[in-house]
Amino acid sequence: MSKPDIAPPPLRNDCFALPAGVNWTPVDEALALLRDRLTVVTGVETAPLRQAAGRILAGDVLAQRSNPPQPNTAVDGYGFAGAVPEGPCVLPVLQGRAAAGFPFAGEVPQGYALRVLTGAALPKGVETVILEEDVTLELGHIAFRGPLKQGANTRKAGEDVVEGALALPAGRRLTPADMALLSAVGLAEVSVRKALRVGVLSTGDELVEPGDAAGPGQIYDANRPMLLSLVERIGFEAVDLGRAEDDRAALSRHLDCAAQRVDVIVTSGGASAGDEDHVSALLREAGAMHEWRIALKPGRPLALGMWDQTPVFGLPGNPVAAMVCTLIFARPALSLMAGEGWQEPQGFEVPAAFAKRKKPGRREYLRARIRGGQAEAFHSEGSGRISGLSWADGLVEIGDGAREIKPGDLVRFIPYGSFGL
Ligand code: AMP
Ligand code: MG
Question: Whose CA is nearest to atom 23 of ligand 1?
Answer without folding.
Answer: 317
